[in-house]
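Hey, quick one: can you model this chain's 3D structure?
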Amino acid sequence: MQVCVVGSGGREHALASVLSRSAEVIVTPGNPGIPGSVVTPAEEVDADLFIIGPEQPLVDGLADRLRQRGNLVFGPGADGARLEGSKAWMKGLLAEAGVPTARHGAFTDEASALAYLDQMEDLFVIKTDGLAAGKGVLVTGDRSVATEAVGEYLSGTAFGDAGRRVVIEEGLSGPELSVLAVCDGKSAVPLVPAQDFKRLGDGDVGPNTGGMGAFSPVSIATTDVVDSLMEDAVLPTLATLRSRGIDYRGVLYCGLMFTPDGPKVLEYNVRFGDPETQVVVPRFTSDLVDLLASAAAGSISESPTFDDGATVGVVCASQDYPRSPRTGDPIEGLDAVAAVEGVMVFNAGVGEVGGRLVTAGGRVLTVTGRGPTVTDAKERAYRAVAEISWPGMQHRTDIADAATSVATTG
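Sure thing. Here's the predicted structure for all 410 residues.
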């Protein structure tokens, strides 16, 4: 089988590396650090199965266009992709499905938004309604900062049209969990959970990013917990989508928080998470191609299986990420990393100059360590990270330090 993975980041590199165990894989547009990359647009590729990685092409209807010409596609159509394309729409669907989530409101005018802020206590969560590359979320306890953000979002100063409608939520506290569920339109199966780290700096400080690292497994994510999440959130969401005439075939990424009032869904994404994918899919022991192809065809054949080990992924980012990342710096040390046992490097924001890989984006690569325990996997990941360098390289040093530490987020 020939598989086409659409995208150019670390998520797509990780998917391609596992899919290639049982299929011929091409990645479009890929990047110079991903084997099998081609510049041919997806709609000009002939493949047996298409897997769409990023959210923007899904929101723009790429899956619909590929299906219309008769292709097998893993990824929701534009109707289902609204779960990520509009946070306000997603919140409305959660309410219809009876899925617990944070108290919230959606606003297009500043006066109403600020009046709603007055109803919040202690912690303010401000989100763009539209896509903002994982950066359109502000969590703050400072009312003046929240007020300023509302003005910048609604005016378009901060995130353009994506922020001209804002969603304001109550802040929640507790351990977080990410679960990726593979859906065939009628049913769904969960992959092994992961926990990710959104803030730029150690101790969960600094701005929100697209993700600075992740690990799997997560001690709080017992089989019972995952089963409850599927029954109380994922399956009701899938059923509500179906009641609206939406045939959702793809990943439903559920980000939730264990609050004192019970688990609540923070968000849904409509694609494989990044950097969660870089720690989840390497643990596959069953055939990822078979799973995604059967879901794309509308009938999942069997539940996936995973190894009993652990993975820890550390994202290495460019100087000044996430605001204005510097690019063009040569990446040193990748040859040395190749000699570190149990380590994989997934390339994301990389380019090529004179046959050498250089930085070409904010999050440049993810270093994933594997081992029998989270401790072992973390040690290997950071041993490899220590070999890599470029001017101004940033990374967190506390990924997976405390699997059940309490975080505060939105």
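One thing worth noting: DSSP finds twelve helices and 23 strands in the chain.
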